[in-house]
Amino acid sequence: MNKNLWMIVIGVVVVGVTIYLLSGNHYKANAPTVAAFDPLNATYVVNDSSIVLMDGRAQAPAAPGSAEQTVTKIFGQPAAGDLNGDGTADAALIITQNSGGSGTFYYVAAAINTASGTAGTNAMLLGDRIAPQNIAIQNGQIVVNYADRNPGEPMTTAPSVAVTKYFLVNGVTLEAASPVAGAGEHCGGNMTTAATCATGYHCAPTPGSHLPFGDVGGTCVAN
Prior knowledge:
By secondary structure, this protein is mostly beta strands.
C-alpha cells in the first residue's frame, strides 16, 4: 500500500473516531441504567402470597386445577409522596382481590422508589366490600379514608361508617400506625387516636387557648 493510500485510511479513521466522541454515543453505551419507578408493575405480598402486577393487574387460578380465577388489581390511582424520608416520591395504593365469590377484599400497600427499581410492600387488609373514599401520603405516612359497616351488619347493608386508618413504612414493610401531625397541626390530648408530632416537632399548648393542654392537646411546633 502506497503512502498516499495510508494517509487516506488514517484520515478516515481519525474523522470517524472524532465524530463518535463528539456524538456522545460512547457515554450512552457505558452509562448506568436507572430502573424506572412504576407502582403498576411491581410485586406485592397480598394475603401471604407474592403477586406480580402487570399494568396494575394479575390473574391466577384460585386453586390448582380450579376454573375460578383470583383477580388482583389496583383500585383507583396511586397517591404520590415520600414515605421513607429519602427525598424521592414513593406511592401508596389500594389493591382489591376477588377469587370468584361474592367477596371483594380491599388492601392498602406501598411502592418504594429505590435505586434498583420499585419495591412493593406487604398489603394490609382494610375490609370486604368497603367503599374507599381516598388515599394520600401526609407527613410521611399513608392515610386511607373509607366507609365500612357496623359490627354485625350484613354485607347487604351499604357501607356508611366513616373509617380513617394510618400506615407507616419500615424498610419495605408496611405497618399500622397512629396519626402523625405536621407543623401547625393539632396533636396530643386524651383520645386513644391522638396524633403525635412528626420528627423534628413537639406538641405544645396552642397560643391563646385556655383549654387544658393535657386533655385537648395542642399544636405541633419545631423543636
